[in-house]
């Protein structure tokens, strides 16, 4: 079956309207605030404007106010939203909320959907996903999970330390991954729990100072200490957390790629505009061979990344695991986006490193993506292992 590259007219229209909303409403706020949302008032006002424009939460089902887009359709819309650092937050498709909505819609009970998914999809609350731990705990290797949950009279008691929990400051709830069976290093035995904000056993320790600042709610270190949750806080089935996490992981990697591809396009547009108007050495910057090579290489990286994203999304929509294609797309896109932003900054010269354009902010924001959602080196290891297994099985 061939991968269909042409989007449905309704999806193309939604992408166009999202692009218009981002350019007219979001980008002025981004430029005013340096690409960082620092107040709840700004988030609420941007999201209200997105609702009025009819582009809010497009990925969730109609029951929860969205358009029910499949992965391939999300690629077009999310890229347009990602044209501004603040676009995903405004449209309510920012990490980690977007991935949590995706997972809740697929595996939560009806009661959990009403309590957590409905207000999350409406932008009334935010959320976080608490899996990553300080070394030697879970990171690139989720099986290293050390946080534990044991059954007690009132439900489950969670104990452990998490860090780099994006969006945790101000979140209405956390989805916490804890070990309910086995030991660190075992590939099974994890369970996901819904933990309400205000639970006295979930304490925010600190904001971790990082290169990136645009993800609202920060990257937080959290201590779970005698954190008791009721039996109905279990998301999915006990001991099946790693399996359920795959429902979130592959799609979330792709939606990250979609959003960052928007920033790559934005950076290229800034650079091309500069190259077209800047004159030096008797000609336009854009007429010089080295400048043309950087512009062309940017176009190639953007197009190649988009193609890999669409291929992986098509496989996900077909119900395949898409492990190989999502790893390939994530690794290439994370590195290609960095190259595009870096070249764009270089093309703009002194302007590029100034605060007059946001290329310096973009460079700081995109660099961690080569680590988040699996470091490039870990993905390459996984890609190579799968290729070797196929060869050994005679499927290559």
From TrEMBL:
PANTHER family listed in its UniProt record: ACYL-COA DEHYDROGENASE FAMILY MEMBER 11 (PTHR48083:SF13), MEDIUM-CHAIN SPECIFIC ACYL-COA DEHYDROGENASE, MITOCHONDRIAL-RELATED (PTHR48083)
An individual GO BP term: fatty acid beta-oxidation using acyl-CoA dehydrogenase
Self-association and partners: Homodimer.
Cofactor: FAD
Highest taxon of source: Bacteria
Xref: Gene3D superfamilies: Acyl-CoA dehydrogenase/oxidase, N-terminal domain, Butyryl-CoA Dehydrogenase, subunit A, domain 2, Butyryl-CoA Dehydrogenase, subunit A, domain 3
InterPro entries in the cross-refs: Acyl-CoA_dehydrogenase, Acyl-CoA_Oxase/DH_mid-dom, Acyl-CoA_Oxase/DH_mid-dom_sf, AcylCo_DH-like_C, AcylCo_DH/oxidase_C, AcylCoA_DH/ox_N, AcylCoA_DH/ox_N_sf, AcylCoA_DH/oxidase_NM_dom_sf
GO cellular component, one term: cytoplasm
Entry protein name: Acyl-CoA dehydrogenase
């Amino acid at each position: 079956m061939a991968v269909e590259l042409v989007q449905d007219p309704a999806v193309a229209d939604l992408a166009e309207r999202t692009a218009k909303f981002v350019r007219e409403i979001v980008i002025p706020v981004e430029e005013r605030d340096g690409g960082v949302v620092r107040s709840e008032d700004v988030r609420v006002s941007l999201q209200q404007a997105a609702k009025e424009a009819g582009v809010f939460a497009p990925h969730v089902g109609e029951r929860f106010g969205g358009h029910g887009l499949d992965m391939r359709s999300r690629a077009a819309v999310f890229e347009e939203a990602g044209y501004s650092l603040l676009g995903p937050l405004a449209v309510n498709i920012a990490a980690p909320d977007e991935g949590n909505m995706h997972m809740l819609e697929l595996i939560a009970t009806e009661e959990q959907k009403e309590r957590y998914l409905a207000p999350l999809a409406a932008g009334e609350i935010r959320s976080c996903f608490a899996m990553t731990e300080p070394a030697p705990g879970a990171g690139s290797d989720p099986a290293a999970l050390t946080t534990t949950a044991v059954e007690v009279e009132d439900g489950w008691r969670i104990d452990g330390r998490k860090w780099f929990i994006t969006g945790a400051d101000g979140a209405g709830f956390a989805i916490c991954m804890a070990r309910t069976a086995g030991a660190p290093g075992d590939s099974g035995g994890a369970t996901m729990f819904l933990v309400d904000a205000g639970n006295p056993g979930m304490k925010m320790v600190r904001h971790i100072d990082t290169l990136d600042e645009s993800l609202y709610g920060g990257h937080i270190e959290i201590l779970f200490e005698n954190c008791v949750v009721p039996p109905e806080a279990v998301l999915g089935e006990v001991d099946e957390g790693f399996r359920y996490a795959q429902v979130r992981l592959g799609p979330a990697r792709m939606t990250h790629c979609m959003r960052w591809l928007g920033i790559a396009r934005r950076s290229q547009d800034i650079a091309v505009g500069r190259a077209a108007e800047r004159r030096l050495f008797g000609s336009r910057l854009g007429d010089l061979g080295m400048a043309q090579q950087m512009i062309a290489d940017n176009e190639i990286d953007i197009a190649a990344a988009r193609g890999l994203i669409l291929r992986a999304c098509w496989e996900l929509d077909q119900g395949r695991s898409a492990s190989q294609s999502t790893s390939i797309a994530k690794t290439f896109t994370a590195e290609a986006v960095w190259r595009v932003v870096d070249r764009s900054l270089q093309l703009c010269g002194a302007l590029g490193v100034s605060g007059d354009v946001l290329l310096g902010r973009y460079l700081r924001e995109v660099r961690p993506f080569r680590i988040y959602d699996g470091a490039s080196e870990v993905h390459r290891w996984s890609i190579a292992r799968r290729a070797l297994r196929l060869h050994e099985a005679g499927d290559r």
